[in-house]
Amino acid sequence: MFTAKPSSIIGLELGSSAVKAVELRNDSGDFTLVTYGSGVHDQDVVRNDAQANTSHMVQTIRDLLEQSRVTTDRVVVSLPAMNVFHTTFEIPTMATKDMESAIQWEARRMLPLATDKMSLDWHPLSEQPTQNNTIPIILTAAPKDVVNQYVSIIRDAGLSLVGMETEINALQRSLLPQTHGNYMVIDMGASNTNAAIFTNLAPMIVRNVNVGSTALRNQIASALNITPERAASVRQDIGLAFGESGNHPATQAIKFVMDSMIIKEMKRVVDAFKQPIAGIILAGGAAHLKGAAQYFQEQLQIPTTIGDPWQRVQHHPDLTDTLHEIGPEMAVAVGLAMKTKKAGA
Q: Which residues does the chain have with pLDDT short of 70?
């Protein structure tokens, strides 16, 4: 899609419930936090009006960046995982000049839309052929109308678009240890839960489940006969409690959604991978749920931790506690702001 040049960059995540921004300064691969912030959508205003939705998004971005006091207009923006197609495949070893046509042929066979309606991005997973004398390729594609919509939003917000990135690649950049191995990232947002298994930093399997923290809130509201606002508070206070507290009706409501929709799909992803996974890293606002890491670890039998997107970012010591608290929900924005010219770096 596009490529950012090393310097100060804003990573901008346009989420279903909020816009999040992180500005990082890149000094030859050393990242320093400049500023950050988030702004919530007024969903009632834009629910049934696409044009109003776009205008509202533009205004939310403008307000957020003004309040955050950003120092640049250069932006890398995320494409939602639900709108992006990921796959890996192998092609016979061939000259670089012939790879484009071979990959286009494979894309036409695999993609849900015609290739002329999709924006494609691809690169080899390895510079060395496999034992079968093939080249492993990772292909990422997004509908052109979605890409064009995001381009228009950034333009109307008065910003300079220097990069467009998938949420999955951004999470890889901010959360994964820079070592070889298999890791799984589970990003639990308001409306969706995205999961990806990475091998040596490359996404091998990607899944999207249309269930997030809003579904947990609504299930609690229904089970306890309380308002959604009160249910949101209970969700955070109780969470996935263990021991005797695990019998709380709110915990049971959360587990019902988690087990029947999220955990069930995550088990399918793990089973499909068929290789040992060194660890699971949780991201997204729902990663703050009490007991979430322990719950995923017990259900999937894989060591699980809460992601820290600031692990490679220098910042003022006085911000450490605050950044730790908001880290999981800012992981995509941090990863976007880390994008450099080198693919996957």
A: 1-6, 42-52, 242-246, 341-345
Spell out the residues 6+ positions from residue 133 whose beta carbon is closer than 8 angstroms to its own.
92, 93
| Length, in residues, of the chain | 345
* DSSP 3-state of 299: helix
Q: What's the half-sphere exposure (Cβ side, CA atoms, 13 Å) at 296? A: 27
| Structure token pair of residue 171 | 């999470």
Whether the CB-CB separation of 301 and 267 falls below 8 Å is answered with no
pLDDT digits (tens, 9 = 90+) for 145-195: 889 989 999 999 999 999 898 999 999 999 999 888 999 999 998 889 999
Evaluate the CA torsion angle 70, 76, 78, 83 in order and state its sign. Answer: positive
How far is 186 from 196, CA to CA, in rounded Å? 7
Nearest Cα residue to 41 out of 33, 52, 30: 52
Question: β-strands 74-79, 193-199: how paired?
Answer: unpaired
Q: DSSP states of 139-187 as a string? A: EEEEEHHHHHHHHHHHHHTT-EEEEEEEHHHHHHHHHS-SSSSEEEEEE
Q: Which two tokens stand for residue 162?
A: 């220097």
Cβ(258)–Cβ(213) below 8 Å: no
Rounded alpha-carbon distances, angstroms, from residue 72 to 22, 66, 82, 143? 11, 11, 29, 29
On the 0-12 / 13-18 / 19+ scale of CB atoms within 10 A, 102 is middle
Closest by Cα among 204, 206, 227 to 217: 227
Strands 30-40 and 18-27, bridge-based pairing: antiparallel
Q: Is the dihedral of CA 215, 274, 309, 41 positive or negative?
A: negative
